[in-house]
Amino acid sequence: MIRILKKVIYVLMKLAGLTPQIVEVEPGTKLHFWVPTETINKTNGGQNEPIPPRKPVVVLIHGFAEDGAITWIPQVFALAGKYAVYVPDLLFFGGSISDKANWTIEFQAQCVARSLEKLGVEKCTLVGFSYGGFVSVKIAESKPELVQDLVLSGSIPPVDETTSRGLLERLGYESWSEVVLPTNVKEMKRSFVVVCHRRPPMPRLIYRQYLKTMFNNREQKAELLHAIAIKDSDHRRPKISQKVHFLAGEEDKIFRPEDIYNAIKRYSKPFTSSTYLDDRRIEDAQFSNGKSSLANFWWLFVGIVRIVRSILKLMSPT
Question: What range does the record give for the signal peptide (predicted)?
Fold first, then answer.
């Protein structure tokens, strides 16, 4: 069932005008991307040759729960008409792989930036959700000529060890692997209470299939999680010159609106261009009810089932 739903989402991505591409960053490291179909030109030899996009570019970087397509399918449909939308899978998610034992956010950022350059992208707006926000900040720091604007949704990078321990204690966990890499249905349901605004009412069978299908590359992902929190002694303000827009979910249990606001105040000087980062009331920022990509995934499934049932009902003899 979950595999079928993934295929449905991939078909929807193509209907939205995106095409899957594999970008070789370096030998042994390949990133899977969804790119605008009009930016790919097949040569006589059958090779795909990138064409620079004509529309403004938006790059959507997913969080830790899912790959790019499953996370961003609603936003892709909303944006693809006006923008050239690029959706990468970060390393060890979706179709992206590497034989390098480099688990740092810096390496993730380097791979995405190099891939965008190979795809002909010269300037873009980066949108990073959760873990993707950490990666987005590193890209904006290292490639200021590439990143025009930055949107951080449910993310307050960087996070030091003290902040990380405080977040885990508040949530009642000992490690981030317990939160986002559950090993059984019971752990998964508990995790969804934290990562979802409203836990989707899925039958136990779907939970089991989801565990089996979606939580691959566990060892690599556990290493990625371990590398998120930096040492307190290494903590510094990001050197960001771009405009930055924070989005926070009113019901977000990990990065609460007050956490986002404290980050805004703390880093108001490096983020000089954004009115949302000035020392103002929290209401000045935009907030949306936070939902995990799994919730989107499930409600999409429910919607498809309802459509099919309606069609079958219309086709049935009266």
Answer: 1-20
